[in-house]
Amino acid sequence: MIVDKTIALVVRASDWSETSKIATLFTRDLGKVRVLAKGARRLRSSFEVALDLLTVCQIVLIRKPSGLDLLTEARVEERFGNLRTRLPALYAGYYIAELLGDGVHDHDPHPVLFDRALETLRKLNNPASDPMTETLRFELVWLHELGYRPRLDACAVCDSVEGTTVAGRHAFSPAAGGVLCPACEPGQRDRRNLSVAGLKALRSLDEAEMGEVAPLIGAELRQLLGQYVSYVLGRRPRLLAYLE
Exposed, middle or buried, 160 (CB in 10 Å: 0-12/13-18/19+)? Predict the structure, then answer.
C-alpha cells in the first residue's frame, strides 16, 4: 500500500453514491489523479468544502494499482472567493480546470503548470486583473508543457526565417503548430490570418514580457488560441464559448 501526501487543485468533482464523491485532482507532485472520497457527501464530513471546484488543499491518498485512488484526507489551503463576484473571472477559472482535467494525462506531473495554474487563479481572484490576458498567458504555458508551444520566430513547416508577413499580415496554422511563410501557407488548410500586432503581442505573452493585452488584439488572440487549444484537445473546450 502506497500512501502519498501532496498539494492539489480540485478540477472536477461529482457524486458517486449517497455518501461518497469522485474527484479529479491536479497535484504538483503526482500529476492528475482520480480519487474516491468515501463519506464526502455526509453532513459533518471531514472533507467539508475541500472538494469544491477550484479549491487548493493538502491531501493524503492511498494509491491503487488499478481504478480510483482512495482519498483519506483533504485540508483546505486556499480558496478563490472573489472569482464568484465576476463572471469573466469565474469562467476563466472553470476553463483552467477543464484544460487541466481533460488535457493532461493521469499521473504525469507538471509542477510548472501547477504553479502557473495557482498563480493565474490568484490573479483572477484580484478584481483589478484582466481575465482575458491571464487566460491567454495560461494557455501558452499549458501548450508549452504539453509539447505544443507555438513556433513564432520562423515558419513552423520549413523553418524559414526570411519572414512570414504577407500583405501586412501573417498566417497561423494549429496543425503546423505556428506561423507560416508565404511558400508554406497554401498547403495548410486550417490556416488563419494573424495581424502583425497580434503576432507581436503573442510573442510578448509567450516570453512573459507583456502586461495587459489591448481588447481588439485580445479578441484576435482569443480566437486563435482557442482554435489551437481545440486542435490539441481534439475537441472544442466546453467553457471556451463563455470566454468569447
Answer: middle
With H, G, I as helix, E, B as strand and everything else as coil, classify residue 39: coil
Tens of pLDDT, residue by residue, the chain (244 residues): 788 999 999 999 998 888 889 999 999 999 999 999 998 777 777 777 889 999 999 999 999 888 899 999 999 999 999 999 999 999 999 999 999 999 999 999 999 999 999 999 999 999 999 999 999 999 999 999 999 999 999 999 999 876 555 456 899 999 999 999 989 999 999 999 999 999 999 999 988 766 789 999 999 999 999 999 999 999 999 999 999 8
What cell numbers appear for 115 in the block? 504553479
Is the distance from CB of 49 to CB of 89 less than 8 angstroms?
no
Range list of β-strands (E), the chain: 2-15, 21-27, 31-37, 56-63, 69-78, 169-173, 178-180, 192-195
Residue type, 48: E
- What are the residues whose beta carbons fall under 8 Å from the beta carbon of 64, sequence distance 6 or more? 70
**Residue 41 cell numbers, joined:** 457527501
Cα separation of 37 and 22, whole Å? 6
Residue 159 has a CB neighbour count (10 Å cut-off) of 11
C-alpha cell at 62: 492511498
Q: Is the pTM of this model over 0.90?
A: yes
How many angstroms separate the first and last alpha carbons of the chain? Answer: 46
E strands, 38-132, where? 56-63, 69-78
